[in-house]
Write a structure and sequence with these properties.
The complex is a heterodimer of chains A (174) and B (260). Chain A is mainly beta and 174 residues long. Helix content of chain A is 12%, strand content 55%. The longest helix of chain A is centred in the first third of the chain and has 13 residues. Classes of the chains: A mainly beta (174), B mainly beta (260).
Chain lengths: 174, 260
């Protein structure tokens, strides 16, 4: 099953599916209801692979600096878009050709998403602009099987305040 | 390639001197002395980098005009956490209106230069004010605009740019600038730069920001001194190329801070 999920259309259906994913084994058949699993087992049929669902992630987050150490900025804020929740980003700036690496944790209702990525970084007056890729490697709860190997990862850092704005976009399998 | 533009006008006296100019005798290689400093010189601290150089021609001659400088910077300098250059100065605005054409938040430092003007029996000297400002980035690299405001005897406003190539913890970056030839008079030989002294850093700079409807001044944060000092101090190097085709290398180091 795959589909595009946009803001406002997600929660009920996703939570229902996510709940089923938690209740059932990861290799079980998980259609929209729970009955077929029991039926399949009863018939002695091998369980089918869990169908993943792919949503198109389109997140925007605004974060503020909570702490910094050397060239690492620790940021916290709110993500909005396909998924809503608290977001934490550790940005590691590198002097080496203006690169930045990032560790991202998002805590939507019912689970979490964790990823990392890298981007190029350039100073443009009052802000620094970064652009690169980020991969969601793991999740918990409703997002236990989340995977997004190639999200577009862009944003800005206000150089005076270190406030960060981030955009994440691309397909996310859950 | 540098963007170079001249908005120069020649003073009448200079025009008269032009009738008697003699070509600069700039034969042989130049020697260059490089001076560098951190202020403050403290590990990890926001600092102002001072650098200057003095050029001497062979046999006491006027040195050949400088055409490019590449200043090698120590490894480990943190260029990213600085708040220098919060505004971008457009070279065209700088040429048209001088410093008034750019935001104070684009200023990076200042200095002066000493040049020899190769006409007349006695060479003319000037000490123009030099300002360093944040220019439009080039391929992601920070660009430093150098603005020289000459008044006498050469009346010329000059903008040229240097590009900061960031280094790393182990490999130093560099500031590379192509220096335009500055004509002494229309059609005359270029002046020779004899010495330059300038800074990049927050010393003497005041920036402004709006906070809750009020304009508030603050001092920008400079680049940071590396967290560790290598044996022998923080090494700078300079590569100077002259119009006569020669290149001279010079080195300087900032001593390691004293341990407290």
């Amino acid at each position: 099953m795959s589909g595009r999920v946009f803001l406002g259309s997600v929660p009920t259906r996703r939570r229902r599916l996510a709940g089923l994913l938690v209740l059932c084994s990861t290799s079980a058949v998980v259609p929209m209801g729970g009955g077929p699993l029991a039926a399949a087992s009863a018939l002695g049929q091998p369980p089918l692979a869990r169908p993943s669902r792919t949503i198109t992630l389109s997140e925007t987050a605004h974060l503020h600096l909570t702490s910094e150490h050397s060239l690492t900025l620790n940021e916290e804020g709110q993500a909005s878009g396909t998924i809503r929740g608290t977001i934490y980003i550790h940005l590691h700036l590198s002097n080496n050709h203006g690169g930045v690496s990032a560790e991202v944790n998002i805590y939507p209702r019912g689970g979490s998403l964790t990823g990392s990525g890298s981007a190029t970084y350039r100073v443009e007056g009052a802000q620094a602009v970064f652009s690169g890729k980020l991969a969601i490697a793991r999740g918990t709860g409703s997002y236990l099987h989340a995977s997004a190997p190639g999200l577009r990862f862009t944003g800005t850092i206000q150089r005076r305040t270190d406030a960060v704005a981030v955009q994440l976009s691309g397909p996310l399998s859950t | 390639m540098p963007r170079v533009a001249f908005a120069g006008k020649l003073a009448l006296g200079v025009a008269l001197l032009a009738c008697t100019w003699l070509p600069a005798m700039a034969s042989g290689a130049q020697t260059v002395t490089l001076h560098t400093s951190f202020s403050p010189d403290r590990l990890g601290a926001s600092t102002t980098i001072g650098f200057g150089f003095a050029i001497a021609g062979a046999n006491g001659d006027v040195p050949s005009p400088l055409v490019s400088v590449s200043l090698g910077l120590p490894a480990g300098i943190d260029y990213l956490s600085t708040t220098l250059g919060l505004a971008i100065c457009q070279p065209a605005a700088l040429l048209e209106r001088g410093l008034a054409g750019c935001s104070p938040n684009s200023r990076l430092g200042s200095g002066s230069a000493y040049v020899e003007v190769p006409f007349g029996q006695s060479a003319g000297h000037e000490i123009p004010d030099i300002e360093a400002l944040m220019g439009p980035p080039n391929h992601g690299n920070i660009v430093v605009l150098f603005y020289a405001d000459g008044r006498e005897p050469v009346y010329a406003q000059i903008v040229f740019e240097g590009e900061l190539i960031a280094g790393s913890q182990t490999l130093g970056g560099s500031l590379n600038a192509a220096v335009p030839l500055i004509p002494s008079v229309a059609g005359g030989p270029p002046v020779s730069i004899v010495s330059v002294s300038t800074t990049i850093g927050p010393a003497g700079l005041t920036y402004y920001e709006h906070v809750h409807g009020h304009t508030v001044s603050f001092h920008p944060r400079g680049v940071s001194v590396p967290l560790r000092c290598p044996r022998g101090g923080f090494a700078f190097s300079g590569r100077f190329t002259f119009q006569d085709g020669t290149t001279t290398l010079a080195k300087s180091s900032v001593p390691c801070p004293r341990r407290r």
